Amino acid sequence: MNKLLPLLGFVFLLAFRPIPLHAQMPDTDAPPDRTGELIDRLYSVEGFQARFSQALEANPAFTANAGERVFIDRLSARARESALFTYATAVRTMLEDFTPEEIEAMITALDSPAGPPLIRLLLADQLTLHQRLADYVTTIVDDGLAALVTRDSLLYMREFSQDLRQIMDGEYLDSPLPGAANTVRREGNLQTEQVGEAIFRFDIEWLSNSKYSISDRKSNPVTLGPPLVVNIYEIEGNEFRYIWMNPDGSYGKDHLIKTGYTSYEQELKTFRWALNEQYLSPGTSPLPAADREAFAAGEGHGFYPPDESLRITARFTPDTTFAQLTMATSSADSVTYRVYGKAHFKVGGEAQELTLYQSTNDEVTTLFVPFQDATSGTSSYGGGRYMDVPVPAGDTVVLDFNKAYNPYCAYTDGYACPVPPAENRLRVAVAAGVMAPVK
Known about the structure:
Elements: H1 4-8, H2 11-14, H3 35-42, H4 45-57, H5 60-65, H6 69-95, H7 100-109, H8 116-156, E1 170-174, E2 182-187, E3 190-195, E4 198-206, E5 211-216, E6 228-236, E7 239-245, E8 251-260, H9 264-280, H10 289-297, E9 311-318, E10 324-328, E11 334-347, E12 350-359, E13 366-371, E14 385-390, E15 396-400
Antiparallel strand pairs: 1-2, 1-8, 2-3, 3-4, 4-5, 5-6, 6-7, 7-8, 9-11, 9-15, 10-11, 11-12, 13-14
Helix pairs in contact: 3-7, 4-8, 6-8
């Protein structure tokens, strides 16, 4: 249940808290009886939340798809409409077997030692309600799965404007898990995968800019089935997300994490395409639909010309004090980072220094480097730019200013974007990375 409530955002359930449970039933012309009073004294919205959460967690299809936003959104909408009504109906139906006299006895028993009718009620509570909620959960989960199929079919038909063949060669991890990493290498129309000691090879035939057929070679240790048509539907950072249709018409999804490039030119092209794709895709873009259309019409971000001299190997000195910095944002909020260390380097022959920060909420994978320079407010965004830097393995760190990007606040309102602190305001111009957006 700990992971369930954040996933579903059960605010809509809490909204029912002031309303007695029996009031969730439809109005009837029947005379008032004591059953409603018994329901309100024995059952609560809080108890419903616990039972409903348990029923969801016991449903395998729910736990398998709990990370899918479309699935969760559909379930939440259905639950808002009917979950409490279904539960209240089940409670009242369960009590229909009891006579008015038994209902009265149970009400009296609540303030006295529990009698046989109360024991019977509690047994029915464990069996009947559990089964009715399980059946209800199956119904709304099926509805969520239907929403996923609809969404997945659209992902499968999605096409990129760029030709992904230009950036697909290189090395990847496929669904990396501790101790079970599947390494992948792409070379033209050949894909090689190593799973443990086993080597698999596949033939690739590109069908469009983002869709290809992948075929199993007979020499593989295990035959993995007929050819599949795979569509890359989204790129975010170095993660390539793809989807395929199974022979039964269902869809499978996975991702490749790129770890090696054939050249710096390919690496930079991948970064730029991925950044544009992030802003174009409804699933990852900070922009509303109308602004996404304008962004696409303007051909995405404007970039400075590539300058490999601004891919700098800097000297790194770690911070050993575990100091923290509360950084102001573009809104009234603030955000706290741990000071991870400093990068020392030169630009235009002048010594420079930037502080590297680690989010206090995340595991250490990359470090955050907000900065301003002499281009800020002219050819680059006045609020500064950001870089994501790999955690240093020794006493050096790579600062690639060609991968500097703008905060969301450069394009739209409603975000709290960290403002580069005074210590990260460079005196020189760094004409690399993303330029100021065209208004």
